[in-house]
Amino acid sequence: MSDEKRQILPEAKDAYLRQRSTEFEAHPQAERLVDWFKANAGWLSPDVEIAYSNSRGFHLRAIRPLSSSVLVRCPLRLTLSHLNLDNTQTAVLHVDSPLKAFVGVLPNHVLTRLLLIEQRYLAKTGEGPWQPYIACLPEPEAMTSSVWFDDDDMDCLVGTNLAAATRSTLALLTEEWEHAVEVLRDAKLPTPDFLELKSFEWAASILSSRSFSSDRILPDREPFPILFPVVDILNHSTNANIEWDARPFEDFALKQTKHEAVQPGDEIFNNYFPKQNGEWLLAYGFCFPDNPVEQFAIKMTIPLPMEEALRKVGLYKPENVPFGMSKAFLASNPNQEQQYLRTRGHPFERYENSVCFLRGIPPWIVHLHFIMVLQNLGIEPASVDKAHPPARIVFDILLKLYEALEMKSRLLPILDSPRTFPNIKQKYAYIYRNGQARIIHAVREELRAVFDKLQVQNQMSPSRPVIISTTEALIALKSDFPEHYQRFENGLKIYYDTTILTWSSYSAQISALEEADHPAELSVWKVLLFALAHLYTTTFEKRDKLVHRWIQALQQLHPLPTVAAVDDEEPVFDDDMLGDFVHGVKRPIRDLNHTVVQEELPLELGEPTGERLGDRVAAWADGVVERCAFQLDGSERMLMYLETGDEAVDGEWAYREEEIELGQGCGVVLEKEGE
């Protein structure tokens, strides 16, 4: 292209100069850096300049339309790394430094930091082969990565993974610095004042934010961090049209792939590749709102005794992986590798799973909970259809995952955005923190949507799986067996001082009651299940009633205890209490022990003629409620998940593909009441 065509158009030039005069400065250090770079075989496009502003620091801007795609090319000779201390390396600059004696003694990355600290000290006195380059590097007071957060800044990260990662990074840096100082002192080498911990942290920050991996230019050795002067001066943008061009053992260049679109005055960016905001803020000192690749990292910890127990029931067997999930995750170590929650629409895609609302949760976590649920229920993995486990198992997995996410959500609420921030570090901390919070809340809301669709409140339950409180159970009892309901209502009045005027009033009363530091509704559930099971064993008609089907489904999963097991247990209820609920008069539980049960009764009694049936049903009701009753956040009610015993109906909700709108996330659609 001719010189005439490379000139800035008058109107573009005027606009650019106006912009420069108000925001950008012609920095003498930038001019010295360019002169030094070119004098040492570096190449910088004549169509760009290194500019400076308070907000952008040193960066690259176009001064005219680009005549070539190549922006900058740095020779291997100008790079800075531990190789500069190794006299056997002929392709790089060598420095006369006492640090050369520690090549092979200290780790290479530590040597690079020490060399950078030394060169920074020399640069301040106008010395050193990289002086113009070092002079343009940011000083500690300009650092904004989380390593440089003070206590107030760190408070903004409470509840996040980055808080722990920052503390770990600082601890590791301190350990490496102390070891390096000890090695230098053992060698009788003076440790100058400038070799302080803050300088070591500064060097680590420079390398984490500006270095490249050496394998592009030195493919014959293990990768290590290496600094390319001027190449590293470009700021980051995910939209940058940039290409990295390395010629092994020679140089490293950046190319603008759509250079025709660059206008005079435009800042030219590099693309450091997609990263999550935690990595950006820890290593680079910035992050982005609405980062599309953001995930929530979960570090699993399986204690060794638990792992050994789960291994025995098939934790690591591919044939036990449920829900059609890929078995590849079994090759990873769950205690070492992080797992990631992902929201719907994530560019990395979500996880393969036949259960729609579990697709945002990593396979290792789903599989671990699957095996744990089987173990808790006493179910052998071989007896379960892994592709479509029964809905009861799906529900227990769902509940355990939801409780864990709910606890984390409380620790990491979504905060309102303040109008101003005390400093830029707290602004970035807020961006990162709320981005993490939105992920965990979105995945949690996917699971909560399932509960909301299953839950029935203050009305008759439909003939499908439901989540209900004692209110809805009593409504069903009243509908199916009005006389038995009247007896139970009388028992509530005697023992809980509760009068059912309306269902809403009962719900309010029972929610407010406590019994031995537990919700009173927990014991009401136990009495109610006993009453329903008693009704089930003594009523030989109306076998299709909903309350009977609930008990039958529960009993299939939780069989009655044996007589021997009951003998070892303390009495569950007051001996006369149950009579008021079941018979309307005080009658001891042993009356039910003598009940003769007909052979055709579809109940797995486990003992001939229902021996000691009353004691066993009481123990059964207590055990089922202790294992299965739960609370959802925002409610004081004790809830139970109940199925109809019809496998086709009970499993339908778990494997439907329909979605509901949650902002982010996948939900399920169930039939509306009455359909």
TrEMBL record:
Gene Ontology MF term list: protein-lysine N-methyltransferase activity
Domain SET span(s) in chain numbering: 46-273
Name this polypeptide is given: SET domain-containing protein
